[in-house]
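Sequence in, structure out.
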Amino acid sequence: MSNPKLGILAGEGKMPVYIAQKALSRGYDVYVLGLKGNARVADYKGIATATGQIRLGQLGAGIEFFKSRGVSEVVMAGRVQHTSIFTNLMPDKRGLAFLASLKSMGTKYLLSRLIEECAKDGVHFVNSALFLEDFFPKKGVLSKRQPTPQEQKTIDYGFSMAKQIATLDIGLTCVVSQQAVIAVEGMEGTDKCIARAGELYKKNAEKDSSVVVAKAARPNQDMRYDLPVIGTRTLKSMHKAGISILAFEAEKTLVMDLEEVIALADKLNICLVAM
C-alpha cells in the first residue's frame, strides 16, 4: 500500500518546513511547491519526495504540479509578502483568467477564490496548521512580566482594534498607545508595521505611556489560509522598536517555537499575553 500524500504550497519561514517534517514522520510523501521570492526549496532537501517552484500567479502550473503527482490535499503555509502582487506577479494563462474574474484583491476574498478554483481540479486545501496543534497557546500571560492595570487597559483596547481591522480584511495587527492607534498593518507585514510604529512612538509619545502590539484572527477565521502567526522575529522587531507588550488571540494565533518565544520574551522583558 502506498503512502498518503500531502502537498505544501510554501511561503517563507519555518512553518511549512515544520509541517513537512511532521508529515514525513507520520508516513506521508511530501510534495513542496515553493513561491519564488518567498520559499527556499533547498530547505526541503531530504524531506520532500519532489519540489517545484512557481511565481505568484502561475495558477495552471501550480495545479498541474500537484495533480500530476496524485496529490489531492494541500497545505498553504508560510509568509508571502503581500506586495508580491506588484513586484513578483507573473501569471500564466489560467492565472490571467483567474485574476480577471476577481472583484477584489483583498486577502480573504482572493485566497477564498483561489481555494475554490483549485478545488475544481481536485486539489483541496486543508488546515494550514496541520500537525501544529500544540503551537496555539491558551489564554493567559505567558511571560514572567505581568501587565500593570494601566497596561491591561491598553491591551484590551489594542485587541479590540485588531479584531476590527481583521474584520475589515486590512491586516491582523495594530499598534496602540493611550487609547489611540499608532499603526495598522497593511501590505507591508507585521515587522514593518512594528518598525513604523516604533518611529512614531519615539518621536511623539510620552515615555511613560504603554505601547502594545496586538494581533487577532479574523472572525470565523478560515484555518486554510493566512493565520495570525508570531515568533522570535516578532519579538526582535518589537525590541528594536522600543515596544515591550505583545497581545495576541489565544487558541487562534500560531506561535512558532513557543518555548523559544517565551524565553526570548523574558530575556527582553516583553510582556506576552494570550487574549
